[in-house]
């Protein structure tokens, strides 16, 4: 039974989280639980079960997680996956560390940050080699913000404190000759909550992905100030590629459950290959309609711009870990001592069928 749980609040107790995972309920922080989608009712009781929290299932950067379910690839791989949604990758990280879920769908940079705090997690599938993010600045500041130095004093919207969007915001502020403390990161999530924050002038800028970035532009609310969405833009902004969307898990879990991890790798590598051989329109047709935010044409437009970010084999691209380490070290000196070999593995994607 592949299941989806949406907007699971980390304020919920561990007992409640476990109960919802076992019952297969879908939950929001404000409404009563409803039944989750069951797409493999004939699965054997011996089939392994895995729960994965993703920092925003509707975001195109995390599309492979839901797409694998829609394509039936979890079932084909012989694993029952429960996808749990939260608005920020930081929430997925916290849930993983708390033992509430088995895996986290977030950015690779969390594995480095966590190692500096004595926590060992590793990416077992690397799905993208650019962030797929844009630093958007409010149109009301178009004449004021001209260089990175001008980010000083701004309130920048991020998905959550400690999130990858927070880290990318910090890097750009520091790159402009400022200190990390020279701006205010404000957690505003993504999608409509971020858009509302921009409309109400609660934030001056935001680091966000698609389809939110395109919605901001179409509503004439903000413009792209730093492009970390395209490969060329990422090269210019970050000095190289930046491994982003990943499935990361506790190193101990990976060692104890290699067969389960292999099944997940099989499903995701197959999904990435499918994405590389199908059109944006065909891919969009596989996704839930609510992900279109009421405008399928806009969703397809955004999808066309983001598809090049994804890898086709799930492997960690050469040089990516070193560049991520360099970026984070600019404002997190402790990251310089991270052992990169413990933050990712290609073992499972190399053997993916």
Can you describe this structure in just a few lines?
The protein is an alpha/beta fold and about 350 residues long. Helices cover about 35% and strands about 15% of the residues.
Task: Kindly describe this structure.
Strand 9, helix 6 (164-175) and strand 10 form a beta-alpha-beta unit. The two termini are 22 Å apart. This protein has helices at 14-23, 63-70, 73-77, 89-97, 109-115, 164-175, 192-199, 212-218, 231-238, 251-256, 258-276, 280-286, 296-306, 320-329, 347-350; strands at 3-5, 25-26, 34-35, 49-54, 80-85, 103-107, 121-126, 133-138, 155-158, 184-187, 205-208, 222-228, 245-250. The chain is built from 15 helices and 13 strands. The longest helix has 19 residues, at 258-276. The strands form 3 sheets. Strands 1-5-4-6-13-7 form a 6-stranded mixed beta sheet, with helices on both faces. Strands 10-9-11-8-12 form a 5-stranded mixed beta sheet, sandwiched between helices. Strands 2-3 form a two-stranded antiparallel ribbon. 50% of the residues are buried. The model is unreliable at 6-44 (pLDDT under 50). By secondary structure, it is an alpha/beta fold. The radius of gyration is 19 Å and the shape is globular. This is ABC transporter substrate-binding protein. Its main location: periplasm. Residues 63-278 form the SsuA/THI5-like domain. It is found in: Periplasm. It holds the Pfam family NMT1.
């Amino acid at each position: 039974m592949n299941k989806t749980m949406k907007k699971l609040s980390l304020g919920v107790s561990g007992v409640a989280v476990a109960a919802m995972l076992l019952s297969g309920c879908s939950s929001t922080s404000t409404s009563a639980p409803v039944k989750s989608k069951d797409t493999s009712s004939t699965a054997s009781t011996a089939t392994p079960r895995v729960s994965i929290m993703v920092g925003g299932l509707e975001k195109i950067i995390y599309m492979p997680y839901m797409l694998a379910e829609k394509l039936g690839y979890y079932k084909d791989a012989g694993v029952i996956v429960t996808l749990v949604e939260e608005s920020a990758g930081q929430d997925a990280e916290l849930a993983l560390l708390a033992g509430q879920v088995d895996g986290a769908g977030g950015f690779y940079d969390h594995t480095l940050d966590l190692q500096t705090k004595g926590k060992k997690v590793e990416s077992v599938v690397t799905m993208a080699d650019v962030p797929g993010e844009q630093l958007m600045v409010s149109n009301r500041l178009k004449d004021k913000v001209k260089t990175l130095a001008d980010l000083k004093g701004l309130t920048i919207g991020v998905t959550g404190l400690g999130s990858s969007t927070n880290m990318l915001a910090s890097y750009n502020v520091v790159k402009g000759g400022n200190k990390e403390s020279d701006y205010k990161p404000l957690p505003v999530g993504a999608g409509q909550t971020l858009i509302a924050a921009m409309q109400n002038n609660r934030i001056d800028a935001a680091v966000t992905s698609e389809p939110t970035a395109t919605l901001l532009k179409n509503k004439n609310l903000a413009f792209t100030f730093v492009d970390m969405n395209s490969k060329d833009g990422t090269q210019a902004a970050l000095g190289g590629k930046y491994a982003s969307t990943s499935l990361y898990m506790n190193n101990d879990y990976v060692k104890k459950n290699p067969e389960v991890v292999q099944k997940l790798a099989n499903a995701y590598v197959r999904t990435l290959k499918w994405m590389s051989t199908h059109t944006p329109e065909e891919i969009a047709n596989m996704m839930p309609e609510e992900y279109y935010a009421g405008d399928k044409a806009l969703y397809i437009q955004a999808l066309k711009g983001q598809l090049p970010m994804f890898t086709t084999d799930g492997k960690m691209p050469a040089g990516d870990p070193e560049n991520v380490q360099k970026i984070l070290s600019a404002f997190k000196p402790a990251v310089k001592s991270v052992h990169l070999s413990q933050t990712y593995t290609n073992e499972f994607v190399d053997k993916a069928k």
